[in-house]
Amino acid sequence: MALVTLVLLQIFVGAAGAHLLTSDVLVEGEPETIVASAEPPPVPVITAGPVLAAGGNGPLPAKGTLAERLTEALGDPALGRSVGAAVLDAETGALLFGSGPATGITPASTTKVVTAVASMASLGPDARLSTRVVRGSSPGSIILVGGGDPTLASPRTAGSPVYPRPASLATLASRTARALKAAGVSKVTVAYDDFLYTGPRTAATWKPGYVPEGSVAPVTALMIDEGRASRGSDQRVSDPSRATHAAFVSLLSKYGVTVSKSARRSKAPAGAQELARVDSAPVYALVERALTLSDNDLSEALARHVAIKEGEPASFDGGAAAVGKVLTRLGAAKGVRVFDGSGLSPKNRIAPEALARLVSTAASPANPGLHPIISGMPVAGFSGTLGHRFGKIHSAYGLIRAKTGTLDGVNTLAGMTTTRGGRLVTFAFMADKVPPGWGKAEAALDRLAAAVAAS
Asked: Which domain of life is it from (predicted)?
């Protein structure tokens, strides 16, 4: 029979750490014998409990301790005089701590959690946004049809190492040229259709400086590089649809198709023959990107696609109404009032408890289709908008996933963590009358989240 070696370990936990004390060898043979080492006889192995209880179901943190820590931290003057907080047990939904938990506060970009939940629940994780080219109503005419994919990449950004990999305008032009040549067509006129969206391109509740400063592009159904004027720049073009049409025409010419001079906006005929198309990454990956990077353009696009799916106009108002419908179906609409998908509107209001409950809904084993919302949240000290956060609070690195929010006078943080005892909890900390010096408010919010993780 084979020789079987059993290593018996004893772990002592103390100032000296863990130590290997004995090693005995058991030999199987005929007759069975024990070959003993010169070490003392073995003692029973003593093991500690798991570092994290399975499923995040460790003991609840002591409410008194949690309340004491958070109440003190909420009093930080850097947060100003309008602060709300909620900490929930992810499994039961019980409110473990609240400070004005039902009072609506300007959420800034934590609004994207609302948009993400509605997108995943309405559109489904595998839906894709398609940009197409179809035949026009007259011979030799084609129409570039926007499908509301703001991540569509121009040649100048197509090779960038980004996740998820975007669809390419060059690929669409190449496929179009191939289809035209196969049909014996070498000269065309090109119009564009961006009629998928309706209403104004900027929200009435937005501050007028958002587009000029590069926070967001005018919202259209046809754009490349999220409306950016150049690679690596935040500057946005004034008309993303026309800019995308011009780039497409240029690419067609490179692929051997002569294009008559045209930049006409024209609605594609119903049932028009499709010549070529490219598809975005699936919605679950788009949601992850929107949350990790706090992507305003993508969040606005997702809100409009929810509107289309829910039978509402693909506008700011329609998106807000559709998101409300979806949250109502989920039983999560109470305490949420939004006017856009990105959180740029200072008129949005979300109660801290409602926001923390949305995170719990996304994390619940009962909602596996919403889990990309959790995986898309930045990780403390490592990724996205939390990559530079938490400073010297090294104990929180990697333990907190959360969405950030920042506007003038507004700082918010909503996410989840596992407590010291292994309990999964969600939280929302929100302040919307922050005095100048927002970096100090961010640090105060980080300390609040770290206090929850340490409880």
From this structure: Bacteria
